[in-house]
Amino acid sequence: MLASLLPQGVDGTTALLLVLASFFTSALTAAFGIGGGVAMLGLMASTLNPAVIIAVHGVVQLGSNMGRAIIQRQHADKRLILQFIPGAVLGVALGAMLVTSVPERLLLGLLGGFILLVIYAPLPKITVLAQGGVFIGGVISSILTMFLGATGVFSKAMLLAFKLDRKTLIATDAVMMSIQHALKVVAFGFLGVALRDWLWLAAAMIASGFLGTVLGTRLLHALPERLFQVLIKGLLTLIALDILRRAAGF
């Protein structure tokens, strides 16, 4: 009975591993704002058919981010979200047209470099982010998500420029990523990626991810603000360096 609910090529052990991973990666993202989506993508890349990884990951991340957005919604910055939406729509549309033609290593290099720039460049050099840059960031990150799947690290780096407190930063990002993943899932549907066979497994991963979000949110509330800022910058730096390593082919 269980096997009939799983997509072809996925056994019960793999399905259970993915469901458990969704719990822990969602807890990680809810607590620190980053890391969960990338970790989930890496695990899926080692167990699933490459042809469907980005699309299935988008469905799962949509559910995970919606859980965070609902739980943390009172802290979200609506002004930044409204600037992000049109950029996300444009970016997903462009990404859908380019998804088969742009080298992945080029995109990885640009992503890693941008993250380091936003974290460490003096603010006067990146004031464009405070002057409509959320729209631009929405375009860029939404193009990237069609190729790379997990681009929450990009939006988190972008939001750091606004000096948001930890709760506002993570809640705002959760809403932005919910919008972006929803648009991405629709785009892959138009591109002909069949997701119907994955719905039961994705639903189980979303449910376990929501429980992880509840746990991670409790940890977030307990973190001192200064410690959070140090941790998130450190994690972003490590992720950016790993992205650049992959871009270089190592």
What's the pLDDT, averaged over the residues? 77
From the N-terminal CA to the C-terminal CA, the straight-line distance is 43 Å
Structural class: mainly alpha
Biggest sheet character:
none
Count of strand segments: 0
Q: Could you say which overall geometry the principal axes of the C-alpha atoms support? A: globular
Please report the number of helical segments. Answer: 11
Low-confidence stretches: 123-128
Fraction of residues in helix: over 70%
Order of helices and strands: HHHHHHHHHHH
Notes on the protein architecture:
The protein is 76% helix and 0% strand. α8 (152-160) packs antiparallel against α9. It has helices spanning 2-5, 12-32, 36-45, 53-71, 78-98, 104-120, 133-148, 152-160, 166-190, 199-222, 225-247. It is mainly α.
Key phrases:
76% helix, globular, 250 residues, 11 helices
Quick structural gist:
With 250 residues, this protein is mainly alpha-helical. Helices cover 76% and strands 0% of the residues.
Which helices and strands appear, and what pairs or packs with what?
Blueprint: H1 2-5, H2 12-32, H3 36-45, H4 53-71, H5 78-98, H6 104-120, H7 133-148, H8 152-160, H9 166-190, H10 199-222, H11 225-247
